[in-house]
Amino acid sequence: MSFQEALRQQLQEDQDSLRTRELRVPPHDLIRFCDNDYLGLASHPALRTAAMACLQEEPSLGARAARLISGTTGLHARLEQDLATFKETEAALLFPNGYAAALGAIAGVIGTDDVVILDKLAHACLIDGARLSGAKLRVFAHNDPGHLEEILQEIRRHSPSTRILIVIESLYSMDGDFAPLAEIVGLKEKYDAWLMVDEAHSTGILGPKGKGLCLQSGLSSQVEIQMGTLSKAVGVSGGFITGRRELIQLLTNRARSFLFTTAQPALLAAAASASLKVLQSEEGEQRRLSMFSNIALFHGLVKCGNPRSPIFPIPVGDEGTALKLSKRLEETGFLVPAIRFPTVAKGHARLRVTLNSHHTPNHIIALAGLLKDAS
Ligand SMILES: Cc1ncc(COP(=O)(O)O)c(C=O)c1O
Questions:
Q1: Distance (Å, rounded) from C-alpha 93 to C-alpha 105?
Q2: Statement: residue 19 has pLDDT above 80
Q3: For residue range 110-149, what is the model confidence (pLDDT) as tens digits?
Q4: Of all atoms in ligand 1, which is nearest to the CA of residue 169?
Q5: What share of the chain has pLDDT > 90, as a percent?
Q6: Angle 152-171-137 (CA atoms, 0-180°, nearest 5)?
Q7: C-alpha to C-alpha distance for 296 and 2, rounded to whole angstroms
Q8: Proportion of the chain in helix, strand, coil states, percent, rounded to 5
Q9: What is the helix (H) or strand (E) element at residue 70, kind and residue range?
Q10: Is 307 left (phi over 0), alpha (psi -120 to 50) or beta?
Q11: How does residue 22 score in pLDDT terms, banded at 50, 70 and 90?
Q12: Mean pLDDT over each residue of the chain, to the nearest integer
């Protein structure tokens, strides 16, 4: 079969299973209930000013080389320091995005003799990082410490000294629920395992000054690898790992998605440092309060989801129905894409509504009304 024919066949398979997606520019005038810019910082003047000041000083847009070659600027070093301070850890390492941070961190510390145990709903980048490491993979039922313990017991029965890394998210990106962090930390201590927590969706919005769930729960020092992204509530782009100094030193030398890629542009590092300042200011607190008040309003109207999370999965099930619903909402002025396989399991298609600090009560009430009418 020719390459062209093979591609056509695969495209047809995707179409038949409703997997095909359109790459399109959504109309500008829609009210967006789908972004991860939970606090509206992506368009904040302080972030723009920081990026522009950086450009004026050093007119190069691109970083021109990898971090260990010549791509590191004072702005990268400052952001890493700012991230370590924000997360109250010893050190931090920046990656071009969260996806790269996950790949680099897991494959950087774990190898073929080890075991990675993933939550069933862990993000694709965590699964891919675990696969890349070559470790044996095990999966526990979503947010089920009982099942995690069964797996830990089984591994320890046969291999008392195998290195085990448990990988979870703090706030799950598609379901909007929190990990039972205290129980999982208890288990990792009991069975002498390590824990990696992806705080992609909780950084900026949960915990004191938006520092995340690990710090909110007082468990930060027991989490070996903390991960985050600058692309959601922080409002910029980039990923990071925080933890002990030795971890960061090791990843600086071993994380291939850090080593073999051009550094994040310095203007983004400047904007991210400015964003961390806003997040920890009175203004950041006010933005979080507005977001939580919008969440409470929507939660009261739709009566589903987690009342402390900006992510609301509106279950639909059938992929075609989810697409139709999303289209109908768009015709009424709302952007709420359908989430389908492979982002979620087959038959679990949904609308993923995300709330932020700058939605107005009128828009929230209107969307909740439309969802009710559609159900
Ligand atoms: C839970 C989770 N982790 C990691 C990432 C990757 O982050 P980034 O978009 O910065 O690559 C995402 C983004 O979709 C995510 O939802």
A1: 10
A2: no
A3: 999 999 999 999 999 999 999 999 999 999 999 999 999 9
A4: 1
A5: 90
A6: 30
A7: 55
A8: 50, 15, 35
A9: none
A10: alpha
A11: confident
A12: 96
Q: Which of 35, 123, 257 to mutate to test the pocket of ligand 1 (most atoms within 8 A of CB)?
A: 123
Non-local CB neighbours of 375 within 8 Å, separated by 6+ positions: none
CA distance 91 to 288: 26
Query: What letter represents residue 176's amino acid?
Result: G
How many CB atoms sit inside 10 A of residue 137's CB? 14
Residues 6+ apart with CB under 8 A from 161: none
Which amino acid belongs to residue 89?
T
**Using CA atoms, how far apart are residues 95 and 330, in angstroms rounded to an integer?**
35
Rounded distance between C-alpha atoms, residue 239 and residue 241, angstroms = 7
Atom 3 (ligand 1) nearest CA: 200
- What's the confidence (pLDDT) of residue 104? 98
Mean pLDDT value across residues 33-62: 96
Strands 338-339 and 115-119: unpaired
What pLDDT, on a 0 to 100 scale, did the predictor assign at position 204? 98
- Say what the pLDDT of residue 18 is: 65
Is residue 173 lining ligand 1, measured as CB closer than 6 Å?
yes
Planar angle of CA 278, 279, 284, nearest 5 degrees: 80
Active site residues: 36, 123, 169, 173, 198, 201, 232
Say if CB 343 and CB 172 are below 8 A apart. Answer: no
